[in-house]
Design a protein that fits this description.
Largest sheet: 4 strands, antiparallel
Order of helices and strands: EHHHHEEEEEEEEHHHEHHHEEEH
Number of strands: 13
Helix content: 40-55%
Number of helices: 11
Strand order of the largest sheet: 1-7-6-2
Distance between the termini: 37 Å
Shape: elongated
Radius of gyration: 25 Å
Structural class: alpha+beta
Strand content: 15-25%
Length: 350
């Protein structure tokens, strides 16, 4: 049966645990920086890129000195090589105590998970069990956020249902005022612009140099956005058998005057959640070309809609060819669905 990897994240409960985790995080930084330095030395001297296996051998015995498990050191070396290859750089950034957030990877085979606690290196760490852990735990990590709070993450292998719950084909148009509009709905999924909602409080905290308050506001914005995104995408996926999303580019629009609204919309997070949730339920998912979707009449196919930056404020328009009245975003969602059927199912456009 098909399976997926899901990450379950829980906040560490014990206040005294942070001291031990911080110390382990510093040890992880030491191993990472050693990998960085020795890789640069090997490249400069021997013109050779060190592999994961070679780095693990070079770090042999470091666990006993630094108080880390050998599996943790292996995971650090593996992650370093993966990041270096992905970045295509000779070296990566150094990890420091002030600028780098804590990170301690581990493997599941030497862990002992007992209800709301985890035993790692003979020390027990308790966490808030906000939801049950499902599937088989494979790997995980302790991570630290910008506010200094520690979390434990379990990467679990879970079986996919592979059977769509819903039976609706949905086209989705991503926007700024309305975050997304589904072709099967008369009203959009929309929320407040969280950045603008909290910008006054954020500006006051920044002018007063209240660093902790600034981090707390940023965390609240991110958490509210993530909560809304997960609830919305779950509702969409559970009624769909096919999802087609427009491939609007946020990287291009962040260079315009709409940058703040584009970043707040979180299109990348929306598409990521839709994709992995659709995969788990066996829902067909794809991103399609949304060119001319806003100006094309979904009834007759004529390009008679308002176009250009000056016409962005026109949200309702009437087709000059057939007289159909369209809501701009919903019309675009219908056109995206038609394109998705042609691309994902091979159904020719009408």
């Amino acid at each position: 049966m098909p399976s997926s990897m899901l990450t379950f994240k829980y906040r560490i409960k014990d206040s005294t645990s942070s001291k031990h985790l911080v110390r382990l995080g510093w040890a992880v930084n030491t191993v990472w920086n050693f990998c960085n330095e020795v890789s640069m030395l090997a490249l400069r001297r021997d013109k050779h890129w060190l592999s994961t296996f070679e780095l693990i051998n070079l770090c042999a015995g470091a666990g006993a000195e630094l108080g880390l498990h050998s599996d943790t050191i292996s995971e650090i070396c593996r992650e370093y090589v993966a990041k270096r290859v992905a970045a295509r750089k000779r070296r990566l950034k150094w990890r420091s105590r002030k600028r780098s957030l804590g990170w301690i990877p581990f493997k599941a085979r030497f862990l002992k998970i007992d209800d709301d606690s985890i035993k790692y290196l003979k020390r027990r760490f308790r966490f808030w069990l906000s939801r049950a852990i499902t599937g088989r735990v494979k790997t995980g990590s302790f991570t630290q956020d910008a506010r200094g709070r520690w979390y434990v993450n379990f990467q679990c292998e879970v079986e996919d249902a592979n059977v769509p719950v819903g039976d609706t084909e949905i086209g989705i148009d991503l926007g700024l005022t309305n975050q997304l509009w589904c072709s099967d709905m008369d009203e959009p999924y929309s929320r407040d612009n969280l950045t603008r909602t909290h910008e006054d409080a954020l500006a006051m905290a920044q002018r007063a140099n209240k660093t902790k308050r600034v981090k707390a506001i940023h965390a609240k914005i991110a958490n509210c956005r993530k909560d809304w995104t997960h609830k919305t995408t779950t509702a969409i996926v559970h009624r769909a058998k096919l999802i087609a999303v427009g491939n609007v580019s946020s990287t291009k629009l962040v260079k315009t005057r709409m940058a703040k609204s584009v970043l707040d919309a979180g299109w990348g997070q929306l598409r990521t959640c839709l994709e992995y949730k659709a995969k788990r339920l066996g829902v067909i998912y794809g991103e399609v070309n949304e060119s001319y979707s806003s100006v094309t009449c979904s009834a007759c196919g004529a390009r008679t809609g308002p176009s250009g930056l000056s016409a962005l404020g026109v949200r309702v328009w009437t087709c000059a060819g057939c007289g159909a009245v369209h809501k701009r975003d919903r019309n675009a969602a219908h056109n995206i669905l038609r394109c998705g059927r042609a691309t994902l199912l091979g159904i020719p456009r009408l």
